[in-house]
Design a protein that fits this description.
Elements lengths: L2 E4 L18 E4 L15 H10 L1 E7 L8 E6 L4 E8 L14 H15 L7 E6 L2 E7 L9 H4 L5 H13 L9 E3 L5 E3 L26 H14 L2 H7 L4 H17 L18
Antiparallel strand pairs: 1-2, 3-4, 4-5, 5-7, 6-7, 8-9
């Protein structure tokens, strides 16, 4: 992931598209953010505390994102990290998704990710920020030595898990830039604002396994997920999605368990996101 920011200007202008001209943009080095003597969070409990309670200090904006995506520091008295903040106020209207629902869809994707145990989505919360309520997500530094164009063609276990996850959440935008391979081999996925449509909209670069049998270990995860969707997970999703969207998520999991196959392009919707990277 990379970020850019304009020269010095009032913080509230970070939401204004008209300010971002090509000759007024410079690269933002997220590794150079000054956290003082604060340390990085250790473990999930500290990460959650930091994301929910930390003070947001936005430094720049991702200019290649469709919606306002701000990057900066999040700090408590003792902890600090880099994060992404997507305020609902910066969401652009879409013809096929209700206005003001993208942050909730990001949270819903994280909830499903946690339920699978695959940690596809980085730690994510919904909270208030400098531009109102929005999604706040821990920033992940991708392995700089990985060639994404080559990586997405690999038969990588993390990518195959992600392909199953995307089928469950009906991800309409799995671009190469939304895939974050880490130095330890784990693979994260980001930008899940246009998921959970009631219509089939799976659009992804990860068609390598289309039509192939699902792995037994993935079927076991889907069995547990189906049960969770009928219980607490389903109730959590109802806070961010419509009842019909939750029911369709349940149905997609049931369909995967019935066919025991990776889905194939439907032909009714473009199979690949554009641009792919």
């Amino acid at each position: 992931m990379s970020a850019s920011e304009p020269g010095p200007q009032p913080d509230d202008e970070l939401l204004d598209d008209d300010l971002y001209e090509d000759d007024d943009v410079r690269e933002l080095d997220v590794t150079a953010l000054d956290h003082g003597d604060r340390r990085a969070p250790a473990g999930r409990a500290e990460i959650d505390t930091l994301l929910r309670e930390g003070e947001l200090d936005m430094e720049g904006r991702l200019l290649d994102a469709s919606n306002v995506t701000l990057v900066g520091a999040i700090r408590t008295e003792t902890l600090a990290a880099t994060c992404v903040y997507k305020p609902v106020a910066g969401e652009r209207p879409l013809w096929d998704f209700p206005d003001g629902t993208l942050a909730g869809r990001e949270i819903s994707a994280h909830l499903v990710s946690e339920a699978t145990g695959w940690a596809v989505v980085p730690p994510t919360v919904l909270r208030d920020g400098p531009f109102g309520r929005g999604m706040v997500q821990l920033w992940m530094d991708a392995d700089p030595d990985v060639d994404l164009a080559e990586f997405v063609r690999r038969d990588d276990p993390g990518l195959r898990q992600m392909a199953v996850f995307d089928a469950v959440v009906n991800n309409a935008d799995r671009k190469g830039g939304h895939i974050i391979p880490m130095t330890d081999g784990h693979v994260y996925g980001v930008d899940h604002g246009i998921c959970f449509s009631v219509d089939p909209k799976l659009r992804t670069l990860l068609w390598r396994w289309a039509g192939r049998p699902l792995l037994l270990e993935h079927l076991a995860v889907l069995e547990r997920l189906a049960e969770d969707l009928r219980g607490e997970l389903g109730e959590q999703l109802h806070e961010h999605l419509t009842r019909r969207e939750v029911r369709r998520t349940q149905q997609r999991v049931a369909d995967l368990l019935r066919t025991q196959l990776h889905p194939q392009p439907s032909g009714d919707w473009p199979a690949l996101p554009w641009p792919p990277f």
